Write the structure tokens for this entry.
Amino acid sequence: MIEHDARVLVTITGAVQGVGFRPFVYRLARDLGLRGWVNNSPRGVMIDIEAPDTQIRQFLSRVQVEKPPHAIIQSLDWQTLPPAGYTRFEIRESETDGVKTALVLPDLGTCPECLRELFDPANRRYRYPFTNCTHCGPRFTIIEALPYDRPATTMKHFPMCPDCQAEYENPLDRRFHAQPNACPTCGPQLALWDNAGKVLAERDDALLKTAEALRQGQIVAVKGVGGFHLMVDARDEAAVRRLRQRKNREDKPFALLLPSLEAAKEACDVSPLEAELLTSPEAPIVLLKRRGGDICEAVAPGNPYLGVMLPSNPLHHLLMHELGFAVVATSGNRSGEPICIDEREALERLRGIADLFLIHNRPIARHADDSIVRVMAGRPQIVRRARGYAPLPVLLEQDAPTVIAAGAHLKNAAAVAAGRQVFISQHIGDMDTPEAFDAYRRVIADFQDLYSLKPERVVHDLHPDYRSTQYARGLQLPATGVQHHYAHALSCMAEHHLHAPALAVTWDGTGLGTDGTIWGGEWLLVNERSFERVAHFAPFRLPGGEQAVREPRRSALGLLYAVYGDAAFEMRDLPPVAAFSEAELKVLRAMLEKGVNAPVTTSAGRLFDAVAALLGLGQRSTFEGQAAMALEFAATGAETDECYPWRITTITGEDAPSERMIEVGQMTEAIVEAMRCAVPTSEIAAQFHNTLVAMILAVAQAAGEKQVVLSGGCFQNRLLLERTVAALRGNGFHPYWHEQVPTNDGGIALGQVMAAVREHQPCV
Ligand code: ZN
Ligand code: ZN
Ligand code: FE
């Protein structure tokens, strides 16, 4: 029986460009004897095929099963068309008009085949630091417009040589339409500059001289894929200290670039999941438990963890192969500013920090810091979302209006949503400097341009002083404020496609509440439309307000004052009280007694600070979360199930629903008592964590909601998260926490988008 030919037009959307999708379709179509064509369009990949029905059906199923490794199919639709009488299968020119929905891919770590070529003396790309193919190489950081084609990337400055061109045009080559395709003849090249921009060496010689300088303890600014790193020998205490001093960075841990997985295993404990993350194409910094080895203390002072990444681009592979030892690879920026991407700008901004500059002439279209991941409760949690992950969208369950979400202030990332996709920007950073704010505006404009989006409205934090809020209100768009902790809760719910109702435990350092006070230790019951604040910590005062963030001793004094009143100022045996001079105590006392410049807070982050200061773990912080980290580290390994006493009081308002207040007075007294009895710090720290877990569980039981969402910066604390998850599960609850999106304020934008979705939902 003769089967008649059918013809279908297939549209595939998702991350299907720049991953070798068309050559894959081409080979599959030829395999099955189909006729027609495939091309890239702004929406995705279009395939027009003509063949007997069975072949078409085979094609449609195999396309989804056998797709290239980095492709992500979000939708596959087809329509039947009248026969066209095609005679062969071909790859056609890209279309550039129409709705832009094809996803921009993140940068991908060097693939095994490219790596082999890199170290093969017989290969024409031997030791060439810009080797790539359709399975690997830069994407997001070189794209200037969609669809993803070479003229719309920063590679347009490098016309291909005949050899590269031939690979590029051959559908059977793994470099077929690899947009960044390049070789030593036609592609970008390295140069080594001194700190005045004078060329000291070029090409491979530049790389060799860089390695030599690093061996001698010099600080080198290295231009990578998504921006500059500052590198220095991680074994050299004096050199690392010099970098700290020049970068004005006292204790915040530096990330490390290690030569290999074996080297990582020597320096740290590496679980199979952590090994998988380290060697993945996303190649994030993974926080690993330190073991020993030759990495000096100044890399991460007092920290039992190290942030480790492995080479993920040919330049880093070559450099680390040459060195064979760990280097610090920290973002190439001045404290508080975004990462540098341009060599001239780097020379200006990093001159006082770096001795030398290893640069190249491939422009970086946009910055992408290294991502940071920590394995928590057996799953990876993205702490900083940038290279390798951004700009892949988070997919919502339902359509969002086209909105800009401005995010918050610290560790900020903005988002632009359209349809079911939420494009969360790469990590931008704290919004304190003009440079950071510029980067922020660029990033938002960039997403709108890439996808030709016309936002209808903007959502922002309630805090009127945040630059992000001011930016949002300055746009000529309808603007809505979303409460900070509600946004945290919705962010986590969106990630897990969770439906209301859910109890959200949102604990962080600071966020403006609906009552105008600083919240941060909240239990919110998220309902269909909005939320109720069902419980919170009993508020205490922060003498000096914002200054308390940098000085945990202030939180401690505020807490002691709430518990002991005036007697707190006499407790000189306690480290935070002893850390103030008589004169300072007098001023602070006036602030607390009169309630002037001493705002109240329910912040769990400040409670962590207070307890850390009480235990003498640090009276001042030089970076956010430092004291809380010290408390977590102090508690790790202590074997105790004990809790301190504490109490819930219920406040019933006039017409408001009852609110529970978690009183920490008894706990504070017990901690002070334990200190005075010389109970080991580790035991007190562990018991404090246990008490917090018990509080979370008790409110969950009182609220009676099975779904419990954990969000906010405090849940970067592994001990707190893991013990909470275990306690909730053990008592029949279903806990959810962040994995794809940061639990810190880097995840706020996603929650803001969700708030807009909820407001927008038609009543059915
Ligand atoms: Zn490759
Ligand atoms: Zn070439
Ligand atoms: Fe927050």
